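Minutes, project check-in

Agenda point 3 was the complex the collaborators sent over. CS summarized: two entities, 223 residues total, and the question is how they sit relative to each other. Sequences were read into the notes so everyone works from the same version.
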Amino acid sequence: DAGVTQSPTHLIKTRGQQVTLRCSPKSGHDTVSWYQQALGQGPQFIFQYYEEEERQRGNFPDRFSGHQFPNYSSELNVNALLLGDSALYLCASSWSGMETQYFGPGTRLLVL
Amino acid sequence: EDQVTQSPEALRLQEGESSSLNCSYTVSGLRGLFWYRQDPGKGPEFLFTLYSAGEEKEKERLKATLTKKESFLHITAPKPEDSATYLCAVGSQGGSEKLVFGKGTKLTVNP
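CS then shared the predicted structure for the full assembly.
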């Protein structure tokens, strides 16, 4: 049973650029959540997608946007990158009828 | 606003020396309390979900307990491979789907 997968594993960008991160949920899951984790901190909720729509959003600017596809996979897009966007980006999947979220390995983004 | 505070920030144990990690929380209505283990540079690995005060769950050397204000992760006779950061998170009722995390406790177990 494949777990949550994310790509790429690492990414280096410069300020002002745009980035797209990808996530495939665990088999049988239909809900995808995205989190940002700065060094030494706990993950911070960005948003959640269910039935191809953003269901809830955390305290992140509009530069952060996402999409969910019919096969439940998801993308996170960040525009106009800032140095402060450097972090580990985590995708978590769950089934809409259960609370527990399962995390992928993350994408490490470095903005120079 | 939901809040989670974990203590201590870091803990060093000798192999076999049992201890407990604390997670204090404030939430409007608890939908679930979650414990995860995270190795450096990796994604969090799910350990336990607790739903109501008095509930306990065990897995190998780990045991999680829950009261109305806090949760404890008890580690019995730890081994070096238990070294990791342990994260606590809460989900609240009322239509909120997000998890609110603490900063974690970094556990180091020396052989």
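Noted in discussion: Chain B touches chain A through 24 residues (CB under 8 Å).
Follow-up: revisit at the next meeting once the mutant set is ready.
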